[in-house]
Every structure is written in C-alpha cells, then in structure tokens.
Design goal:
Helices cover 42% and strands 25% of the residues. The protein has seven helices and six strands. Strands 1, 2, 3, 4, 5 and 6 form a six-stranded mixed beta sheet that branches.
C-alpha cells in the first residue's frame, strides 16, 4: 500500500528508483526531453466557474495530460497549479526521448481539442524542448523532491507561453525535432520566436 501510494505521489519510475537506491540528496546530468503544458486563461475560468467545477475541470485536464504522457513512457514530474511539467529520458534511459515527447505533445493537443467539447473554452499551451538537464533530489534531508532543472525545462516553459497566443497551441524547439526520427515528419517549421530571457531567436 505504501509503495502504491508513494508511486501515485511522485511517479512510479521515481518511486522505484528511491526504493532500489535509497534516499538522500543527490543529482546528476542527463539528456532528456521536456513537455510543459499550461491552461490558457485559468484566472478567468476560476472567476466564472464554481470551485467544484474548477476542480472537476482541472481533474479532467490532468487526466488527459497523464494519459498522453504515460502512453509514451514519460512521467509527470509535477503539477503546478493549472500546469504540468512532464519528462522523458530520465530517470530511466530512453534514447528516443525526443520522439516520445513530440508524440505525447501532439496526441495531448488532439485530446485537449476533444476535451474542449465537454469544457467549452478550455485550451492549453504546450511547449517541448530537449537538452541536458540536472535531475535529482532537491531540498533538505528532512523534505525533498525529485525534480529536473536546466535550460531545456526553461525553454519548454517559454515555448508554452508563446504557444498560448497561437492558433495551434503547441510549439517544439527546432532542436527537439532535429533529434527525433519518425515523429519529426509530423511537425512543420514555423520560423523563430523570441523567448523571454534569451537574446537570440529560438527555432
């Protein structure tokens, strides 16, 4: 029961790693892909809907997110209010993590279009990025969490912000598409975007 509960809180991959390797503050570099997803206009939604309806909408939204990510072998690192940070390629090794992340983002986008039929007006921006990250337990010995930080995480979040203002609300970095194999042909070049905190435009 504890193992099941632990897995539901931190993700099955992270739970198994902790059970096998023990606890402690440590981290390491890894090559990974990140999918960030965030609801558009959540503040307005909270003002229009009742608290119960807001929670029901968020639960339906996160159910779609988890299904799309789990289906491609990724895991949801954390829920952040009305958004989610999803990881591919760590803690387990996935050489095709870019393909998995792109496929998850594409299928998630399609699923969210369908979800909007039940929740009119519901939309979310999705950003995908790949690169080196630092993954590990962050916090103190008394309380910590396994998380992923790095430029790929920041880029995915920035791409999500840009995607929110577009008709097709999903953007992947050119680097992620370049790394992908079969999934790459399902994506098209939309030029560059100026991301907050960067001087050069991002493909």
């Amino acid at each position: 029961q504890l193992q099941d509960l632990f897995g539901r809180h931190v993700g099955q991959q992270v739970a198994m790693q902790a059970l096998e390797q023990g606890t402690g503050l440590r981290g390491g570099e890894a090559d990974a892909s990140v999918v960030f997803v965030d609801i558009v206009g959540s503040t307005a939604m909270a003002e229009v809907l009742s608290p119960d309806d807001v929670v029901a909408t968020l639960n339906d939204f996160f159910d779609v997110v988890v299904r799309a990510v789990d289906g491609q072998g990724g895991w949801v690192n954390k829920f952040e209010g009305d958004g989610a940070l999803c990881i591919f390629g760590v803690p387990g090794t996935q050489p095709d993590h870019a393909d998995r992340a792109l496929r998850a983002a594409r299928l998630l986008h399609l699923a969210l279009v369908g979800l909007a039929e039940r929740h009119p007006g519901l939309a979310a921006g999705i950003g995908v990025s790949s690169g080196h990250v630092v993954a590990g337990n962050v916090g103190t010995e008394a309380r910590y969490e396994y998380t992923v930080i790095g430029s790929a995480v920041n880029e995915a979040a920035r791409l999500t912000d840009v995607a929110k203002g577009r008709e097709v609300k999903v953007l992947a970095s050119g680097e992620t598409v370049r790394r992908a194999a079969g999934e790459a042909r399902r994506w098209r070049d939309v030029g560059t975007a100026a991301l907050r905190g960067r001087t050069a435009p991002t493909a």
